[in-house]
Design a protein that fits this description.
The chain has 637 residues and is α+β, with helices and mostly antiparallel strands. It is 20% helix and 31% strand. Strand 6 and strand 7 form a beta hairpin.
Length: 637
């Protein structure tokens, strides 16, 4: 058994890391010395995994994969013949956990061995939430030996039999040259059954006019833009958005991929397909959360990033605009919430080469700055895509950069391939038998149906006709309600599991009894509301000082409410200061979860924190257990 190309690095810094927001002076020491330029994995590196092109660093006793750093000019000089002649010599050892499995061969196994292999594949699929990646031709110690053409074909036939036994499909992603023959990287994905598809949410942020909505429209429809707003018109929700060309609300669009990774068309040529039809034909569904880029709608954007709980954040940068202030603002929020980052540099078809280089240099400088500490990877080939996806699954420092054009379609196929390979993040509590906790981020009142709430299932699961508690109301109380119907991706379902988004129709409830920030919870959870909470905060930027009675707006999950500071460890807080602070909500009690991250802001004042204590309305308290200090990792030699 062997490991993936990357493993999670040890966390040897504080969880409250400063973000690259304009005006921020607070920084933390950088884990590694930044390199001179962006990491650009060329064609040669896509197939060469030897020690000369990739190095493994030891951090806290665990290995982390880092591609070899070289200049972009070197990539351009690599020929296809040189890339094909490169030999994949070795990888890391196979992990005992995760969705990656290494097999030297699978040639004509006996019946008992076949059943064992099927059981092993089933476990890998469970680890990957329906996806697994098999490396055929690789030994358990990481040696890329390779197989002959006949043996590789026989092994792939056995893998197809294993996948078919679990209602899955095996798709060869790429073939490499090993020491003794060929190596195949195969993606195994289970087919969707009873609405149980792989659900991945991607928040799309960036400065206004950077092409966010256009990119979402092109990805979801499969059709290129005409350069005059055709693609984005399918994403906008309001008339004034179509007239101005700017998003002002939170819009969600889906993209479906079948078991082979092919795009499920959103139109059959005669009409646009409904969401339910797309989901029914898909085994992996991406929900793109298109957020506003204008400074006027920053509160809406922050609420979407905290309340929708995305798996990944795609930061869109206009190649002809550079990294502007609002791009840094959105990047700072994503870093504060610790979301994995994907970068899309758009409009490269209309950008001069020197301006594109300036944009990439500026983006790379920000990503490698102390406090951000990311490893930017310019994606140019399918090999880059596979390496980035495998590395990003276990190392959140990887930051792939795609150079895109929504008009010409440049590199869109690479972005779709990356999304096809990247796994969903695991839910906060993936146990479906845990007490249910559903956080509401939007409310509706539908004629003929009644009150409807939308949100995310943070933990546990809910089924039809369940009786749950709704709250807290203005007095901090929870009332019993009954679920009448439920939908996921506009498709009726019988159950909602952890990590999924859904809408619920509630019986006998008025519209004025609902608001954003409430929860639906199982009675076994015994939910309580609090007016005060304690947080460990870091002030990212403030022009002067912060004292008691300071009143920022707190964003935490689906909660957005003005609060005031009632006490703190020191007299005043300045930019870069850390402290334990007690906040009090200004208007009504809220349900909060220990350990969740929050953002507070007021004007250009910004801060991040983590909830470590709750003071309930009944006078009781709850505190977050202190984490044991992590062992100091050995120095990197």
């Amino acid at each position: 058994m062997l490991s993936t190309l990357s493993a999670p690095c040890a966390q040897n810094v504080s969880c409250l890391e400063p973000c690259p927001i304009e005006g921020t002076d607070a920084r933390i020491p950088q884990l590694e010395e930044p390199t001179s330029g962006p990491v650009s994995i060329g064609s040669n590196d896509a197939v060469n995994c030897s020690g000369s092109t990739a190095k493994t660093e030891k951090n806290g006793g665990r290995a982390r994969y880092r591609p070899r750093v070289h200049s972009t000019d070197e990539d351009d000089n690599l020929s296809a013949e040189a890339a094909a002649a490169a030999i994949c010599e070795s990888m890391e050892r196979e992990p005992q956990e995760g969705n990656v499995e290494y097999k030297y061969h699978l040639i004509a196994p006996c019946e008992s061995r076949l059943q064992h292999l099927i059981t092993q594949l089933k476990w890998r699929l469970q680890e990957g939430q329906g996806e697994a990646l098999y490396e055929i031709g690789v030994s358990d110690d990481g040696t890329c030996r390779g197989l002959s053409e006949a043996d590789l074909t026989a092994s792939l036939e056995t893998l197809n039999v294993m996948a078919a036994a679990l209602s899955a499909t095996a798709t060869v992603i790429r073939r490499l040259q090993g020491k003794e023959g060929f190596i195949a990287e195969v993606l195994v994905r289970q087919a969707c059954s009873d609405g149980d598809f792989i659900d991945v949410r991607v928040a799309v942020v960036g400065n206004v006019d950077s092409g966010k909505s256009t990119l979402v429209g092109v990805l979801t429809s499969g059709k290129l833009d005409n350069g005059r707003g055709l693609a984005r018109s399918k994403v906008f929700r309001h008339r004034h958005e179509i007239e101005s060309g700017r998003t002002s609300s939170i819009s969600q669009q889906i993209m479906g991929l079948d078991t082979a990774g092919n795009l499920v068309k959103s139109s059959n040529g005669l009409r646009e397909m409904e969401w339910g039809e797309i989901v029914a034909a898909s085994s992996k569904v991406f929900t793109f959360i298109d957020l506003a880029g204008h400074e006027r709608y920053i509160k809406t954007t922050v609420s979407g990033m905290t309340g929708c709980v995305p798996d990944y954040t795609m930061v869109v940068v206009g190649s002809n605009m550079g990294v502007l202030r609002m791009t840094k603002e959105h990047l700072g929020v994503a870093l504060a919430l610790k979301y994995p980052l994907i970068f899309a540099v758009t409009k490269v078809d209309m950008c001069p080469a020197n301006i594109l280089k300036q944009t990439l240099d500026e983006l790379t400088k920000i990503l490698k700055s102390p406090g951000v500490n990311k490893l930017p990877v310019v994606v140019k080939t399918e090999g880059d895509v596979v390496l980035s996806a495998k590395s990003m699954a276990n190392d959140a420092r990887i930051a792939p950069i795609f150079l895109l054009s929504s008009v010409t379609g440049q590199s869109l196929d690479l972005l779709r391939l990356f999304l096809n390979l990247v796994p969903p993040r695991k839910a906060l509590d993936s146990n479906p038998d845990a007490p249910a906790e559903f956080h509401i981020d939007d409310t509706f009142y539908v004629a003929g149906v009644g009150a409807v709430v939308a949100g995310t299932m943070l933990r546990g699961s809910l089924t039809l006709r369940n009786s749950v508690l709704l709250g807290p109301d203005g007095r901090g109380l929870f009332i019993p309600v009954q679920l009448k119907s439920m939908m996921n991706k506009r498709m009726p379902v019988n159950r909602v599991t952890p990590g999924q988004t859904a809408t619920f129709a509630l019986k006998k409830l008025r519209k004025n009894q609902l608001r954003k920030g409430m929860i639906l919870a199982d009675a076994a959870l015994q939910p309580k509301a609090c007016m005060q909470f304690v947080a460990e905060v870091l002030v990212l930027h403030h022009p002067t000082t912060i004292g008691t009675n300071y009143q920022p707006v707190v964003h935490c999950l689906t909660i957005r409410q003005a609060s005031k500071i009632v006490s703190m460890q020191q007299d005043v807080l300045r930019t870069g200061d850390r402290a334990r602070v007690t906040f009090e909500f200004m208007y009504r009690p809220e349900y909060m979860v220990l350990g969740t991250r929050l953002i507070f802001r007021e004007g250009r004042t910004k801060g991040i924190g983590k909830v470590v204590g709750l003071i309930y309305t009944d006078g009781t308290t709850a505190d977050l257990p202190e984490e044991e200090p992590a062992a100091t990792p050995p120095p990197v030699r």
